[in-house]
Design a protein that fits this description.
mainly beta; 1 helix; TonB-dependent receptor plug domain-containing protein; flat; five-stranded antiparallel beta sheet; single chain; about 110 residues; about 15% helix; 5 strands
């Protein structure tokens, strides 16, 4: 009985822990629906793709891509690596291309 309980606990923990390495992916869009008497159209003025996830137990990576209306190029808006644990004196490190925390829109 005890052996079965331990085996079920191990199997259950493996099934829940497999999703920790998958990145968080989100797509944000500024959509505009135009409804005329003649036709209905859906357009976007911008599209943003965010990919975030842990690269290892100590560091996480965040990448934000943006596409503006009328442009065929996808721009790198932000990309940075944050080391949260493992540095001496409990220090943290954030490096890469990111917007500074200035104003109301760019705060974490």
């Amino acid at each position: 009985m005890r052996r079965t309980l331990v085996l079920l606990t191990v199997i259950r923990s493996l099934s829940f822990s497999q999703t920790t390495v998958n990145p968080d992916i989100s797509v944000l869009g500024d959509l505009l629906l135009i409804n005329n008497n003649e036709s209905t159209s859906l357009s976007t003025s911008g599209l943003e793709i965010a990919v975030q996830g842990y690269v290892n137990p100590f560091a996480r990576a965040d990448v934000y891509l943006h596409k503006h209306e009328g442009e065929s190029v996808v721009e790198l808006e932000e990309a940075f690596l944050t080391i949260e644990r493992g540095l001496p004196l409990h220090l943290g490190l954030r490096t890469g291309k990111f917007r500074p925390s200035f104003g109301k829109m760019n705060r974490d």
